[in-house]
Amino acid sequence: MTTQNIPTHQQAILVHETGAPDVLKIAEAPVEQPGENQVLVKTAASGVNFIETYQRSGVYPMDLPYTPGDEAAGTVVAVGSGVTKFKVGDRLATAAAQSTYQEYFLVDAQQAVAVPDGISDEVAAALPLQGMTAHYLTRSTFEVKPEHTVLFHAGAGGVGGLAIQLMKAVGATVITTVSTDEKEAIARAHGADHVLRYENFETEVREITGGEGVDVVYDSVGLATFDSSLKTLKRRGMAVLFGGASGQVPPFDLQTLNKLGSLYVTRPSLWAYIATEEELTWRLEELFKSVLAGDLKVTIDQKFPLEKAAEAHAYLEDRKTRGKVILVP
């Protein structure tokens, strides 16, 4: 194992019981050494994501105590046996680490990607989960091309904002929905061609497209929007349901797809689209290149020090975010 000087203990967020954000406590924890095919990374920044609020509150069961976090960036300080991809001093980013709400974290080498010069540690920590989600949706689930017209719900959100930029970079026409004037301004800043409210969006999309409908609709809202989303599609269009912010879509009659024009529906998840090291690396490297080329801007809304992880969770749960929230040790 190759190492540089590292302490035996570190500051970490520990959760001993599920509940409100104040169960996120700062404490001292040991620094673990990397095992086979692992690297130990000094944390530069850690992304804060909604799944961690569900784990903390008990919606998703976790073995207690635990340290939250999967997404982070930092510098390699120790390399386990069998690792040839990274060396001490390299910078990397990942969305599949172990316990990133701490000063050092472990990650399997094949689950991380080198961060190129010109990309800050904070951007590298903010990009993987939301960025790769936007990437697989618009590059793989339905490959958006210049001739396509797209409806993407929640255009002011983290995934929506990145997806709009990726789709505009290839020349597509993008329609999006938002709930407020403030969010409309954010969506327009991302490059959306048309910004609608959720009320009557189906009718307005038909008007914008001259009655034809869109090639694809991306829907993370779910229950409140899905039926109308289907009705915005042109013949043989695709509905991509990738979340359920308003509730889960119940089972429905597949004959509906026939009646509305031989439609397609898919329910993808990120992990099925980064199942191999090659695919993971392709997605994240392409995102980094887009940032360096100026085609993709990553908005970091708030930076919280590690010891204020509870405040970060409360901020996220209050739906105040206008970009990514990160923790900095």
UniProtKB/TrEMBL annotation:
It comes from the Bacteria. Keywords: NADP, Oxidoreductase. Signal peptide: none annotated. The keyword Mitochondrion does not apply. The keyword Lipoprotein does not apply. Coiled coil: none annotated. Pfam families: ADH_N, ADH_zinc_N. InterPro entries: ADH-like_C, ADH-like_N, ER, GroES-like_sf, NAD(P)-bd_dom_sf, QOR-like. Residues 19-327 form the Enoyl reductase (ER) domain. One of its GO terms (molecular function) is mRNA 3'-UTR AU-rich region binding. GO terms for cellular component: cytosol. SUPFAM superfamilies: GroES-like (SSF50129), NAD(P)-binding Rossmann-fold domains (SSF51735). This is Quinone oxidoreductase. It comes from Rothia aerolata. The lineage of its organism: Bacteria, Bacillati, Actinomycetota, Actinomycetes, Micrococcales.
